[in-house]
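User: Need the bound-state model for flavin mononucleotide:
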Amino acid sequence: MKRLVVAVTGASGSLYAARLLDWFRSLREKQPLEVGVVFSENAPTVWEWELQQPMPRDFPCYAAKDYFAPFASGSSRYEAMVIIPCSMGTVGRIAGGISDDLITRAADVMLKERRRLILVPRETPLHAGHLENLLALTRLGAIVLPAMPSFYGRPSDILGLVDTVVVRVLDLLGLEVPSARWGSESPVSSV
Ligand SMILES: Cc1cc2nc3c(=O)[nH]c(=O)nc-3n(C[C@H](O)[C@H](O)[C@H](O)COP(=O)(O)O)c2cc1C
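Assistant: Bound-state model below.
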């Protein structure tokens, strides 16, 4: 059983998280996958504004301040965490060791346990403080995977564009999505 944490913050780009959850719904039919989800306090506001759809209810969802969530402890067996999209506020708090909500606490746990932590930051332009925080987190072992879609696969719609980021996250989580590989006949399959 692969156990993963998906954290969603109040940065723009809720669609990246929604799309990742779509992929998990499809993948968990083929392999044992447990996905714990946590939204920051501000994430639902942005999610509802950008997507105009309700929050997902088909994954175990933990409250923003629920420090009793299993992945708030290093003794739990969650092997990786992705924060998508990741605000600069959350980046700064993790870099500063300020574990003041479940997302920042769980990220701190991932780092201290030397497990995989993937950050998908969304902000532009970036000031030196943002860049220093991202560098500090990279040095601590996190993977910074900016929400920078690519165009060389000529995605035909917005979901195809979003998937150019999301399938890289899946790849780094060790989940195989062969149709998304460069050179495959259909660049990204629909889920
Ligand atoms: C519509 C909307 C879009 C936002 N986009 C971003 C963004 O792209 N990046 C960012 O760092 N903050 C963005 N913010 C601000 C964050 O939501 C805010 O700083 C929040 O306190 C971040 O806290 P969190 O990381 O705990 O969610 C946005 C806010 C709103 C309402």
